[in-house]
Design a protein that fits this description.
The structure is a single chain. With 483 residues, the chain is an alpha/beta fold. The protein folds into 2 domains: 3-62 and 377-481, Aspartate Aminotransferase, domain 1 (Alpha-Beta Complex), CATH 3.90.1150; 75-373, Type I PLP-dependent aspartate aminotransferase-like (Major domain) (Aspartate Aminotransferase, domain 2), CATH 3.40.640.10. The protein is built from 16 helices and 18 strands. The protein has helices spanning 3-11, 19-22, 51-54, 63-73, 87-100, 124-142, 162-167, 171-174, 207-210, 216-230, 257-267, 333-337, 359-372, 375-391, 431-441, 463-481, and strands at 30-34, 37-40, 45-48, 117-121, 150-153, 185-187, 237-240, 244-245, 251-252, 272-275, 312-315, 327-331, 401-407, 410-418, 423-424, 444-445, 448-449, 452-455. It has a 7-stranded mixed β-sheet with strand order 4-12-11-10-7-5-6, sandwiched between helices. Strands 13, 14, 15, 17 and 18 form a 5-stranded antiparallel β-sheet that branches. A hairpin with a 4-residue loop joins strand 14 and strand 15. The protein is globular. The protein starts with a helix and ends with a helix.
Length: 483
């Protein structure tokens, strides 16, 4: 075993990992990378099929981002945002506000609310925590609801801090901490493949495309809002991941769901908190026409795809291009104004992070935004979206593939025992883990969400590399599941 692997076994505790299993074998120790490739201590190369847990947008060691960080190092690495401002964070805040108020050419994008203020933090959990605290206190100070309460979706995952966990509804992750949490409400999410209201028999196609229902999921949301409003204490906010729920299993929303759900929330006085930690910065791709041809008109944010502008926008993961931990919560001037007052009134937002507005992170984020807005990046994202669309249908020939869900530059492949009955594998069978281990043996790295294999490669991934990823997945499924 390599000396670094021994040190890992001796001292490290890995997140979301059963360490008994981890300690049974030598871990893969990564020491290098370039573009969509990673390299381990033994010199083996792997394709990064999940962008290093959904963060790396432009590929590893991108020269533009590397240069931006090196340039910033020649000035200053970090100074506190408690009482001091700095150059790159100020520039980044302005750029994020501009991007968040642009519909990307979408005529349905609303003119309001305008997002004008940015609070920086460290990661997706803290970005949501900031949004929760701001929404809670704004609801109280504005008199909107005396006892603020939040509504989120079944299968929701918004992070691992206590507030973010309180919004979550995945028992596997959250039930252990129930005694620490505050009460939130949940409402049905539109999981078309496993929806009890979908009367269609399984087909070899994305379940959103052949579903037979009457939008019962939206009817449930409407009734929940109406009940809450009649109580005289409307929701402090409706919290959602736009277009697709990530940790729920790459569960996409059918076209029109987000717009209608947001309209219901607005009609019942509930502000919107959009968790774009995973979906932001172009990850959900370009809208397609009836022939699945992508349009080049796009926003960096998934919410805008259906003309939804939130009151709170939580960003992280890809914010720095996957280089450094940094997050941002954007909100409206009205929320900001509710915290203005004399010093002795103590209306300050009493919340902060040591590395808030870190200069290195901001410099990386500015370089990433430059790349995202460039012509080459737009063309690369269009090419990647189309490459996935062309390669993924080949997986339908596998009897253990139940659903293939693509949302722009994100794909989830749900593994089942019997596709005709949508019968899932049991946790003890470790089907998703086994398939990903078999993919790693073929030089492709990703991580499952239960029985769902995630493909979310960097934007620089070539069509040939996409085909290699999908082929490795097909071979792994056949090898491990006998399909």
């Amino acid at each position: 075993m390599h000396p670094l692997a021994k040190l890992d076994h001796l001292h490290l505790w890995h997140p979301f990992t059963q360490m008994r299993d981890w300690l049974k074998r030598e871990p893969l120790v990564l020491v290098g990378g370039r573009g969509a490739l990673l390299r381990d201590v033994h010199g083996r190369e792997y394709l990064d099929a999940n962008s290093s847990i959904w963060t790396n947008l432009h590929g590893h060691r991108h020269p533009r981002i590397n240069a931006a960080i090196r340039s910033q190092l020649d000035r200053i690495a970090h100074s506190s945002a408690l009482g001091f401002a700095n150059e790159p964070a100020s520039l980044l805040a302005a750029r994020l506000v501009k991007a968040a108020n642009s519909g990307g050419g979408n005529p349905a994008a609303p003119p309001a609310p305008q997002l004008g203020k940015v609070f920086f933090s460290d990661n997706g959990s803290t970005a949501l925590e900031v949004a929760l605290k701001l929404a809670y206190e704004f609801a109280r100070r504005s008199g909107h609801c005396p006892k603020p309460r939040f509504l989120s979706l079944e299968g929701a995952y918004h992070g691992d801090t206590v507030g973010a966990v309180s919004l979550g509804h995945i028992d596997l992750f959250h039930q252990s901490y129930a005694g620490l949490l505050f009460k939130t409400d949940k409402v049905m999410a539109p999981y078309c493949y496993r929806c009890p209201f979908n009367r269609a028999q399984p087909e070899r196609a994305d379940a959103r495309d052949y579903r037979v229902c009457r939008w019962e999921c939206l009817g449930i949301i409407a009734r929940r809002f109406e009940t809450r409003k009649r109580s005289g204490n409307p929701y402090a906010a409706f919290v959602f991941e736009p277009l697709v729920q990530g940790a729920a299993g790459i569960v996409p929303q059918p076209k029109g769901w987000l717009r209608q759900a947001a309209e219901m929330a607005r009609a019942h006085g509930a502000p919107l908190i959009a968790d774009e930690v995973m979906t932001g910065f172009g990850r959900t791709g370009f809208p397609c026409d009836a022939r699945s041809r992508p349009s080049q008109e796009t926003s960096l944010f998934a919410s805008h795809a259906e003309g939804v502008q939130p009151d709170f926008l939580a960003l992280a993961k890809g914010l720095t291009g996957g280089y450094l931990p940094m997050a941002a919560t954007l909100t409206t001037p009205a929320v900001f104004d509710a915290f203005l007052g004399e010093y002795e009134e103590f209306k300050t937002f009493f919340h902060g992070h040591t590395f808030t507005a870190n200069q290195l992170g901001a410099a990386a984020a500015l370089a990433s935004l430059d790349l995202l807005e460039s012509g080459p990046s737009l063309r690369a994202r269009l090419r990647l979206q189309q490459s996935l669309r062309e390669a993924l249908p080949g997986l339908w020939s596998l009897p253990n593939v139940g659903d293939i869900r693509q949302i722009g530059l994100v794909a989830g492949v749900e593994l089942v025992r019997d596709w005709r009955k949508r019968k899932p594998f049991e946790p003890v069978e470790r089907s998703g883990i086994r398939v990903c281990e078999a993919m790693a043996r073929r030089g492709v790295l990703t991580r499952p969400v239960g029985n769902v294999i995630v493909l979310m490669p960097p934007y620089c991934t070539t069509p040939a590399q996409v085909r290699t990823m999908v082929a490795a997945l097909a071979e792994a499924v056949s090898e491990e599941l006998g399909g």
